Structures are given as C-alpha cells and as structure tokens.
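Let us practice reading a record.
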Amino acid sequence: MTDSDGGSYVNGGAEAAESSFLPLDGGDIHVCQDGPRDAPALLLIHGSASSTRSWNALVPLLTGAHRVIRLDLLGHGRSAKPADGGYSVPDQARRAGAALDLLGVEHAVVVGHSSGGVVATSLAEQRPGLVTALAFINTGPGLGALIGSGSAAGGPSQWPPTDEQLRRMASTGFSRTGYRVPEELLDDVRAMTLHTFLTTMDATRSYLEQRPLPDRLAGLGKPLLVLFGEDDRRWRSSSALDYRAVAGAEIVFLPGLGHSPLLEDPPRTATPLLAFTAVHCVREG
C-alpha cells in the first residue's frame, strides 16, 4: 500500500523513489524503492537502532545500475514496533525475504551494514535461491571482534534517552570524535521503544553466539564482499580477515573511515560495492 505521506520523493536525480508499507506477520514493514524497476535488485539492510535513512547518501550512487530496495526491519524506523513481535534474526530475515516476494523480486544481491549483515546472512541461509551474493559493510564476524563492553550492545540508562546519551551512543559509529551525527539518525533511536531496542540488540548477540558468520557462510557458496572502515570503534577492523574462511571472499579496507563509511564517505563505499555487484547481480526475466 502507498505511503500516506504522498508515496514518493525524488532522490539524487534518479527515478522517483516509492515509499510503501507491506503487510507482513507482526506488522507493516516500511519499504523504499529507488532506480529502474527492471534493473538488477539490490537489497540494503540497515544496522541496529537505525533505518532506511542510514542509506540516503549512498543510494543515489547505486541507482544508475540497480533497483535499490531498502526496508525498515520490524521494530525500527517506520515499521511496526509490536511488544510481542518476533525480533530474532531469522524472523527478521524471513520478513525481508517475504518483502522481496511481494515486490516480485526473484534474485537480489543483499548488502548489510553492521548487524544488517547478520540479517543478510540469515536470509542467505533461508533463501539461497533468492540471494545471489552478499556484501557487508563493517559487519563484525563474531562477538570476539567487539571493542569494549559497550560498543555494540550497550544501552541507555533511561528511556527515552537524553540527547546527550544519544550522541554518546552514536559517536562510536564514526571514525572521528566531533563528527556531527545526522539528526534523523538520532530520531530513529528516539522512535524505538525500549523493548524493541534491547530485544533487537540481544537478537544479534544471540545469533552470533550460536555460530560466527564466517562459519555460517563458508558452506553457502555465495560470493562475498566485506568492506571495513579501518578506524571502526565498535568492531576490530582486523577481524574482517576472519572472512577469509569463505572461499573467494573479497575484503576491502577503507583507511580513515569508521563503522559507518556509507555515511562518512559514500563515494569510497560505492566504488568497490558497484564493482562487486556488476559481476554478481542478476537481471530479472
């Protein structure tokens, strides 16, 4: 169904983007689409406590060659936030696959930022015929790669968080202190409930505790690109080398960038991503 706010907007000179809501189990899922509908599909999955808006700066660089699809995972952004929702990683991945089904997508390269790569991995496990290749942006391979106790799992001491708490939480997502975190990304955290914030964080941790990502991916046979900002303050950047366990994995380090290169330097992030998708994307029909 079409977004009640008007349903579309213009993004970076590309075809008008469509914003809609898909009725899935647990509640409506917010989806954005950019670029030609007959181009190869690229699914972008955001990280914890984020939303489709985290991709805004990168999307215009991708739409020349792709049908770019973004979704807000359950509990995030403009998607539903039920108190009794299924927030496990496999549940989130299953909904992402169902969303692609409703959109008529049969094959997609799936890109995940941070814990979005965890959901992408689960989607590839569940739907290997749907996922043609995977690309991760600063997705830690396992819990042993975390920097400090509060990097990826720490929560605020009150809810809703104060502005100061929000900025302190978000600051580790970037390479340099003093980086001005986009206000809309802070709004995404404010829009969450304490339950969805904590439950989705715990879900990622639980999935990684069961089995690290390289072990899961090694047997899937999917092409893999790993982009990693070298100055990540949440995950040890050297941990990206763990993905060498996946045959043929391409690992690209981005010097001077932190946990969110898609925001800090979209062109440098897009260049290796587009080179990868040019080889592995499948055009429908």
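A brief commentary: The helical segments are 89-102, 116-126, 163-171, 183-190, 194-210, 213-218, 261-264, 266-280.
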